[in-house]
Model the fold of this input.
Amino acid sequence: MLIRAATLPVFLSFPLAYLVMTGMLEISMLSMILLYIVITCIIMSLLLPLSFDLTHTATIEQKDPVQQIRNKSILFEFACFILGLPGFFLILLLSVCLEYLMGVQVITYYILGFLGVLILKVFLRAFVTVRTFT
Done:
């Protein structure tokens, strides 16, 4: 859980990168770095008390229903890899190569598509999790 939450600064950098790449946000590189550091510090300050509580809890019992689905099949495992951060960076690398070799602009559309899939994943995860409570 803490590892997933620690990826929040990475996910928050996606919309910022998209806005800068499309010219919808004019910001200097130094300002972008400072903003990333501030966001990271805010998230980490929220995670420190949580990690303390988890460390000192006698029994930690987490059952993630999405993880249980993921473990059912190699196809689900592969889909989760492609739709997660490792897959994002793999496809981003391929997109950079495609842009370099073909001259076709792909990265901005890929980031926008990935954000759409990320939002869809949040809704699906909430649905699956709430469904397990009933």
